[in-house]
Every structure is written in C-alpha cells, then in structure tokens.
Design brief:
Elements lengths: L7 H22 L8 H13 L1 H36 L9 H24 L7 E5 L6 H8 L7 H6 L1 H11 L3 E10 L2 E8 L2 E7 L2 E6 L19 E3 L4 H11 L4 H4 L2 E6 L8 E6 L4 E5 L3 H4 L3 H5 L6 E4 L5 E4 L2
Helix pairs in contact: 5-7
Subcellular location: Cell membrane; Membrane
InterPro entries: Cell_div_FtsQ/DivIB_C, DivIB, FtsQ_DivIB, POTRA
Function: Cell division protein that may be involved in stabilizing or promoting the assembly of the division complex.
Length: about 325
C-alpha cells in the first residue's frame, strides 16, 4: 500500500489561488487601491533610491527641457508680437480733395487779410516827407503840385514815383522831375530837379518870371524886386536869351540875387557881350557863353576894392573905377 505523497506545490497553488480570488473580489467591490500588493508599493518607493544618479540626470533633463520650453515659448510670444506689430497696417490720415481745397483757400484768405491789415496800418503810412534839391520852391509848393500827403500808403506811394513826378510837372513848370526814395520806416525823401527862375521880363507894367530853360511863367508880378532877380533887356533873338538864361541859372543863389539887370550889349570885339548891373552899384562886362565860369570870381574881386566901377571879365580880369 503505497502512501500518497503530498505535493508541496499544491499548498502554494492553493495559496495563490486564494490571493487571486481575493484580488478579484476586491476589483469587483471597487477597492483596488487597498488590495494592491504591498510589494509593488515598496518597489515604487525603492526605485528612485536604487539609482540616484539616473534620477538626477532625468530630473536635470526634465528641468532643462522645461526651461527650454519656457524660453522658446517666450521667444515665440515675442516673435508673434513683433510679427503682429509689423503686419499691423498703419492707419493713414488723408484729406479729401474738397478739404484740401478748403485749407488752401483759407491760407490764401489769411495771407490776403494780413496784407490788407498791413496796408491800412500806421506802419505802412507816410508820416513825413523830406524835400531836397529845391532852390526857390517851398516844401509845401512841391508837395501840393505832386499831390503828396501824409497818411498815404507808403509802399503804394513809393512805387508810383513816376506818376507823382508827372503830376508835379504838369502843375508847376518849375519842377523838371522828382524822385521818391525811402529814407526811413515812415519817411519818404522827395528829390526835386528844379528849374530855377533866372529873371523877369517886363510887359504891361508887370514882371513875368523867366526860367533857365527859357520858358516864361504866366504869373506876372507888379514888382520885379519881389523875386530879387534881374530884368532882361536888349535881346533881339530867342537864341540869345536862352543862352544867357542857361548860363545864369548855373550861378549860385547869392550871386544870382546880387544881379539887378542883364543887357545884351555886343560890340565889334565880342558879339556875345553882356552888360550886367549889380545891386552893389558895380557893372560887369562878360561873354554870355562864359558867364557861369567867370562870374564866380566877382565876389573875391570886389571884396578887395573900396570903390565902385566896371569889372571887365571878358579877357582876363581887371577893374576900372568910375570917373
């Protein structure tokens, strides 16, 4: 009779079957975590400790990866922002054609308004006239003849110099020409080219002024001495008179007013001889064509004499007292 030997593996198998059955029951009841084998938990805890170097490498790799990932994310965000900013279309401000035209019109109107304000302002008005070049004409006479007044627009008056010159010539024959120039901010200088009076011609008990250009004024005076200029006598031709008037007009003002009468007195030696009566009682013999050149020596000659007589300036210069 053979005894049956008990198989040692049967116990183990039985134990294992019991464990499996318990695990299945746990799965069915929903208690998986509580039924996990303790060995697996311990192995999980021991696994990091078993290879610390490897864990460090893995951790470093993970950190580096995380850092790289974050840097790349930041760079990506920056690039995206730049790209978005670059691609963002610029808002262009523009004006419609009618708006541009309105602005241009407004600018033109403002410029015109500023110009008009300047033209009517005191800064563009003549405050004073300075008259130069006159001998006998007064400042009032010149301004009246030209139609010049204070308060007139400065630039307009200055640019119309020829017009005012023509006006002056037409109203006063003694004005040959005048020119306007700007002296200062509100002052205009009036330079006058005056045709001076050189004497009088007596007619109908009146004395009519004669100008150096030979023309005679139509305003007769009752007294020749009112002008202090000489009377012309003895002239037979207009050419003789014009020549004498032209030369006499070149004399200085004091010398012209020192003459009382001029007589045309030719002789066989000098067909242009003039006999001039001076206000100081002396007489002068001189050629008509040399009057302006030689008459200037007369004041110095008579200043050395105590007698009256005849100063002969035809050829040389000598003085002969009256008998």
């Amino acid at each position: 009779m053979t005894d049956k030997k008990e198989n040692p593996h049967n116990k183990n198998d039985h134990a294992n079957s019991s464990d499996i059955q318990a695990h299945l029951n746990a799965l069915l009841s929903g208690k998986v975590e509580s039924s996990k084998p303790k060995r697996s938990k311990q192995s999980d805890k021991k696994e990091p400790q078993s290879n610390p170097k490897q864990a460090d490498v893995k951790q470093g790799t993970k950190d580096n990866h995380d850092t790289d990932t974050s840097d790349e994310a930041i760079k990506s965000d920056d690039d995206e922002a730049k790209t978005t900013k670059h691609k963002r279309p610029k808002r262009k401000r523009f004006l419609f054609s009618h708006e541009k035209a309105a602005i241009k019109t407004l600018i033109v109107l403002l410029v015109m308004a500023a110009g008009l304000i300047y033209l009517i302002s005191p800064a563009n008005q003549v405050q004073k006239y300075e008259i130069v070049g006159t001998h006998e004409l007064s400042d009032k006479t010149v301004l009246h003849a030209a139609g010049l007044k204070t308060g007139q627009p400065l630039l307009t008056t200055l640019n119309q110099s020829d017009y005012f010159s023509h006006m002056a010539k037409s109203k006063n024959p003694q004005i040959r020409h005048l020119k306007l120039t700007r002296k200062s901010d509100n002052t205009l200088q009036v330079k006058v080219d005056e045709i001076v009076k050189v004497g009088y011609v007596k007619a109908d008990n009146k004395y009519y002024p004669i100008l150096e250009n030979g023309s005679m004024l139509d305003r007769g005076l009752s007294n020749q001495q009112a002008g202090g200029l000489p009377i012309y006598d003895g002239f037979t031709t207009d050419k003789q008179l014009r020549k004498t008037l032209s030369e006499f007009g070149k004399l200085s003002d004091p010398l012209r007013h020192a003459v009382s009468e001029i007589v045309w007195s030719p002789n066989s030696q000098n067909n242009q001889r003039l006999l001039i009566y001076m206000n100081d009682g002396n007489q002068v013999l001189i050629s008509a064509d040399e009057m302006s050149k030689k008459m200037k020596y007369y004041p110095g000659m008579v200043a050395q004499l105590n007698k009256t007589g005849i100063a002969d300036l035809q050829v040389g210069a000598y003085f002969k007292p009256y008998d």
